[in-house]
């Protein structure tokens, strides 16, 4: 029987503890360990969990991936929203244009990425950030004695950047140009654009070229039962975070952490000039090693 094991811990306290413990943290990146910030226990799914069940689990916990773990506790692979979006786009109903995403009734073991990227709980946070940046993943798992004991995700990266008070304007590390669509686009347009651009989210612009929302893998999968011609504005996420191009990294990270934003939209003179993704923050943290 398919089942999920564990839950991502919701306690967000460590960032406040670190702020008190590490007032001079900018010079202490090597002493800040993964075990200090990681969450545990780890949310996982069994190999026979159906794809749609895995999606509902990831969506309810607001996470982008989970390890696939067998009955003996061995991690076999990882299933992610990127995987679900890819396989959904290849289903007959999607290819025929009947609906944007059509998830098959198949076990996650048929579609997971085999292998799990892990770090030691005693590794510095910079090592975890480097693994995330190099492998282009939004979380790595913490392994001890052959078992997964925690997870270190973008949220923990934001905590570290904030606690270490990393300086420098976000404009120096932002991703550009920004991939966007007009608010008049359909969800079929947006889902196809996600797929072609191989990104996890798009910025939606109004008629004045101002950002008014985002359309991500989460919205694409949530809208999978809607007609392809449904307007993207009907399903986009209105909760966006904007920051000035000269905002220091630690402050942008703090805003992103508190608002649970997955990306920061960067403005200059009111214009959208770039964005900071979680992996951008990971690269910044890794570079401090």
TrEMBL record:
It comes from the Bacteria. This is CBS domain-containing protein. Pfam families: CBS. The keyword DNA-binding does not apply. PROSITE patterns: CBS (PS51371). It comes from Polyangium spumosum. InterPro entries: CBS_dom (IPR000644), CBS_dom_sf (IPR046342), Diverse_CBS-Domain (IPR051257). Residues 38-95, 112-173, 174-232 form the CBS domain. CDD domains: CBS_pair_SF. Gene3D superfamilies: CBS-domain (3.10.580.10). Keywords: CBS domain.
């Amino acid at each position: 029987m398919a089942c999920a094991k564990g839950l991502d811990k919701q306690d967000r306290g460590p960032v406040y503890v670190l702020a008190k413990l590490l007032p001079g943290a900018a010079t202490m990146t090597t002493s800040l360990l993964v075990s200090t910030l990681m969450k545990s226990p780890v949310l996982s799914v069994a190999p026979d969990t159906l794809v749609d069940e895995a999606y509902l689990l990831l969506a309810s916990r607001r996470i982008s991936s989970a390890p696939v773990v067998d009955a003996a506790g061995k991690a076999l692979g990882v299933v992610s929203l990127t995987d679900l979006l890819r396989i959904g786009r290849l289903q007959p109903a999607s290819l025929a244009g009947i609906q944007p995403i059509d998830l098959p009734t198949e076990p996650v073991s048929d579609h997971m990425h085999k292998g799990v990227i892990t770090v030691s709980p005693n590794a510095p946070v910079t090592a975890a950030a480097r693994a995330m940046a190099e492998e282009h993943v939004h979380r790595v798992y913490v392994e001890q004695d052959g078992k997964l004991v925690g997870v270190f995700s973008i949220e923990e990266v934001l905590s570290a950047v904030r606690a270490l008070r990393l300086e420098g304007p976000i404009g120096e590390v932002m991703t550009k140009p920004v991939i966007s669509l007009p608010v008049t686009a359909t969800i079929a347009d947006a889902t196809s654009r996600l797929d072609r651009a191989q990104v996890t989210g798009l910025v939606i612009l109004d008629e004045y070229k101002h950002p008014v929302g985002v359309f991500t893998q989460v919205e694409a999968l949530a809208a999978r039962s809607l007609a392809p011609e449904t307007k993207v504005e009907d399903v986009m996420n209105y909760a966006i975070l904007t920051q000035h191009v000269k905002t220091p990294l630690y402050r942008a990270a703090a805003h992103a952490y508190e608002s649970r934003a997955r990306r920061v939209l960067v403005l200059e003179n009111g214009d959208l000039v770039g964005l900071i993704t979680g992996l951008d923050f990971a690269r910044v943290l890794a570079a401090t090693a």
